[in-house]
Amino acid sequence: MTIVPAGPAALPVPPTWARVVLGIGLILAGLFVLGDVTMATLISTKFIAICAIVAGGFEIVHAFWTKGWGALIWQIALGVLYVAFGMALLNRPVQGAMALTIALGLVLFASGIVRILLSLRHWGDGGWLMLVSGAFGMLAGLVILSGWPVTGLWVLGTLLGIDLIVHGLAWLAHGWFVPAATTE
């Protein structure tokens, strides 16, 4: 009988090259977003709208494929809600961006908390930079939530771009500074 360890210790650590590529990718994405924060916000809103419409369509089709599961009405209702949400975002992207601003603020705040907890768990592996990244995520979330709706369009893109860059720097540090014996 083989016993497999559970929890984070059971997961393999990504190789150094993967962590460095992820860090560089996040930094480049952040710089792209900072190029035009308002446009990045509106493009993001429209992208989310299209994803919601497609997901809603799949949910409706799936409801008919699995009608024997007993939740046909609920699955169709969920699909219709996804499609309606997507259509609302697509037809009114500025108002959609304002609503998504609140959601992003909450996600950044929660992501910051998770990164802080991860940094404490991996303190010896360069976790201090993840702590900085988590603190920035929490701060970004609080700024978004406290300044809404006045700062909705420009803060959303700006903080997202900066958060991506800081998160990328944290991954670069994790890729370069974690001892090779514990990562490969």
Report what the structure shows.
- The chain is mainly alpha-helical and 184 residues long.
- The protein has one domain (16-177).
- It is 81% helix and 0% strand.
- It has helices at 16-35, 37-65, 72-91, 93-121, 127-147, 152-177, 180-183.
- Helix 2 (37-65) packs across helix 4, helix 2 (37-65) packs across helix 6 (152-177) and helix 4 (93-121) packs antiparallel against helix 5 (127-147).
- The longest helix is centred in the first third of the chain and has 29 residues, at 37-65.
- It is globular and about 50 Å long.
- The two termini are 27 Å apart.
- The model is unreliable at 180-184 (pLDDT under 50).
Helix content: over 70%
Number of helices: 7
- pLDDT < 50 stretches: 180-184
Q: What is the N-to-C succession of helices and strands?
A: HHHHHHH
**Strand runs, count:** 0
* Structural classification: mainly alpha
- Average pLDDT, to the nearest integer? 83
How many domains? The number is 1
Estimate the global geometry from the Cα principal axes: globular
